Each structure stands twice: as C-alpha cells, then as structure tokens.
DNA sequence: CCTTTTAA
DNA sequence: TTAAAAGGG
C-alpha cells in the first residue's frame, strides 16, 4: 500500500502530547483498514453487535478520537471519494488478494486451525454502512469530517497548505501530495503486528516534515514525486529492482524521472497523468468546525443500537465533553 | 486497535 | 507498581 520511500525519509520520534494544540487531518480510510484488520477477537472475528453488524471501527474511532482530544489534538476526518481510474490496477490487485485470502481462510478452517486472525485480517471491506456509521458517530461527537472528491490522502495533504497542521496517515504518499507534515504511528499504544507473524513490536509515534526530507536529500518536490513513482505508487507499478535509495541517486544524477527512464530504458504507463495527479489532485476547500458532543445520541447509537457497554461509554463521555470544549474554543479564537 | 483485568 | 493477557461488541 502506498509508496515505500521510508529509506530516504527523515522522521522524528514524538508523542501525542508533544503534538498538542494542533489540528490534523486524518486519512480516515487508512485508519478504518487498520481498525478493521486489528480490532479482533481471539478467533479472528471482528467485534460485532447482536444483529451481526461489524463494530470494530466504531470502537476504534470512538476511543482514538477521545485520545487525540485528551492530548489537545484537533482531528478532522477525511473520507475517500471516487477513486481515480489510474488506481484501477491497484484496486483489482487488492480484490484478488482478498479472494486468495478467503480461499486460504477456508483451508485453515478445514484444517481445524484455531487462530484465524491472520486470515481474517486480510479480508476487510469498507462498506457504505461502515462509512455511514463512522460519519454518524463523528457527527454526534462534534468532530468535523470532509468528503474528498477523490483520494482522501490528497485532500488531507492539501489541507496542510490551508487550515490544518499535518496529516495523520501511515502512507508516505502524503508527502508526494505535498503534505507539509505527516504523523505516523499515532496510536497511543505503540503495538504493531509484524506482518504474517504473531509477534508484536513497539513502534513510536513519529512526525515527518516535508521540507526536511527535501533539503536532507537535496531534491525538490518534483524529484520526490519522481522517486515515488520509480519505487511504485497506488497508480503505477514501479521499476523492478529500484528502491528509494537507488531512485534517489538516479534522480539526482539525471535530474528528473523522464531522464532516468530514458537512461535505464524503461517506460511507465500514464506517466504524465500520474505526475499531474500528485501535483494537482482533485480537492475541495473546506471550512470545518468543531461542535458540542451530543452525549445522549452517542450513548443511544453505541449502547442501544450497537451493544456497547453503557458504563464504559459513559466513563469516556465525560472526557469527551471536557476536551472537545477546547476544540470548540479553538474555532472561536481563530476565526473571530 | 484500546481498555480492563490478572499475574508477577 | 508494572507488564502481560484477556476482553471488547
């Protein structure tokens, strides 16, 4: 997923607290996939209410949002819109992976394997209902969100040029879309599963400043986009055998991606369109505002409709009320 | 993933 | 008091 340019990215360890008093746009689909694949029971099934609706995402969004607010971070959730046709290959590839995972799951069940989490976790669908539930919860919590015309990452990145301080996302693509600052690993509990294995390692929240990445590597934004494309993005496959470091060296030597491709005698389909998509993606201007949380509505939605524990939710509603106050205040301060 | 409970 | 395990919906 995304583009792997981690080897040339300069990142700084941080904490939620250190990033307080800022507003961040959130690549919501990125978070939703994370939640759907990780918030699971021991047998691998997601959390579900008594009607069989998946609730893992509601659980995650509720608690994570409150964590952010408690650390004085103001989140603005950004949802994906219509994917670009450039992404078709990636989308069908992911579909294929899920079909494969389904078959492997069936086989594991037949073998009588107990821990099915690694199989289930690869079969996640963000359904319209999941999106609508998430938006409903955010509305009740008084947290703003925006529907991107196309890529959520692009919209969230664009917002860092306007009225937010950074993007919360795991994907480096945000840097190609020009995000001034990217925040990764913004989970409170830095436990991350090593892919395919049942091992957890600790990861720490980190931030990346685009200008620093550019100056440290002595490149410009166009060259960074070129490096991303050489390595591979959601919109193209990338050149086999070229990782971030090799791409960086080539781009610096040849000047730009077209010269690099001429030199190595390779071609990238739709190159001009892809470059243009990173530089001028479809985005909208959006004035967000924080509202007062409707605690009754949250309680009804989570507890009555989706079987959350009333006691636990009530405990956290107090914190939400208190900490969203600060966000509401921020709006008054900055616009009046 | 995040919180709560339990074991150390 | 802290870390690991279990539970959550």
UniProtKB/TrEMBL annotation:
Cofactor binding: number and manner: Binds 2 magnesium ions per subunit. They probably participate in the reaction catalyzed by the enzyme. May bind an additional third magnesium ion after substrate binding.
Coiled coil spans: 91-122
Annotated binding of Mg(2+) 1, by residue: 27, 80, 151, 153
Xref: InterPro entries: 5-3_exonuclease_C_sf, Flap_endonuc, Flap_endonuc_arc, HhH2, PIN-like_dom_sf, XPG-I_dom, XPG/Rad2, XPG_CS
Self-association and partners: Interacts with PCNA. PCNA stimulates the nuclease activity without altering cleavage specificity.
Function: Structure-specific nuclease with 5'-flap endonuclease and 5'-3' exonuclease activities involved in DNA replication and repair. During DNA replication, cleaves the 5'-overhanging flap structure that is generated by displacement synthesis when DNA polymerase encounters the 5'-end of a downstream Okazaki fragment. Binds the unpaired 3'-DNA end and kinks the DNA to facilitate 5' cleavage specificity. Cleaves one nucleotide into the double-stranded DNA from the junction in flap DNA, leaving a nick for ligation. Also involved in the base excision repair (BER) pathway.
Protein name as catalogued: Flap endonuclease 1
């Amino acid at each position: 997923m995304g583009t792997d340019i981690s080897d040339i990215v300069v990142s700084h360890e941080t904490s939620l607290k250190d990033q307080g008093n800022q507003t961040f746009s959130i690549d919501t689909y990125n978070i939703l996939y994370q939640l759907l694949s990780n918030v699971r029971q021991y047998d691998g099934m997601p959390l579900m209410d008594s009607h069989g609706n998946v609730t893992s995402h509601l659980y995650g969004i509720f608690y994570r949002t409150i964590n952010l607010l408690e650390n004085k971070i103001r989140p603005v959730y950004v949802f994906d819109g219509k994917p670009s046709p450039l992404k078709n290959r990636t989308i069908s590839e992911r579909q294929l992976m899920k079909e494969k995972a389904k078959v492997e799951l069936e086989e594991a069940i037949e073998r009588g394997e107990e821990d099915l989490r690694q199989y289930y976790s690869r079969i996640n669908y963000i359904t319209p209902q999941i999106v609508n539930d998430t938006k409903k919860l955010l509305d009740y919590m008084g947290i703003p969100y925006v529907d991107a015309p196309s890529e959520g990452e692009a919209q969230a990145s664009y917002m860092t040029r306007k009225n937010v301080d950074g993007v919360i996302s795991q994907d480096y693509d945000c840097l190609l879309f020009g995000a001034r600052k990217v925040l990764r690993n913004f989970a409170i509990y830095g436990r991350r599963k090593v892919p395919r294995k049942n091992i957890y390692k600790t990861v720490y929240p980190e931030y990346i400043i685009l200008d620093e990445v550019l100056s440290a590597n002595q490149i410009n934004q166009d060259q960074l986009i070129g490096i991303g494309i050489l390595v591979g993005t959601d919109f193209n496959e990338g050149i086999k055998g070229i990782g971030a470091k090799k791409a960086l060296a080539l781009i610096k030597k040849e000047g730009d991606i077209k010269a690099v491709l001429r030199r190595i005698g390779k071609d990238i389909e739709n190159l001009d369109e892809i470059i243009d998509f990173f530089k001028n993606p479809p985005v909208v201007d959006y004035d967000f505002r924080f509202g007062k949380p409707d605690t009754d509505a949250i309680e009804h939605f989570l507890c009555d409709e989706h079987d959350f524990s009333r006691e636990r939710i009530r405990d956290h509603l107090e914190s939400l009320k208190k900490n969203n106050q600060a966000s509401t205040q921020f709006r008054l301060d900055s616009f009046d």
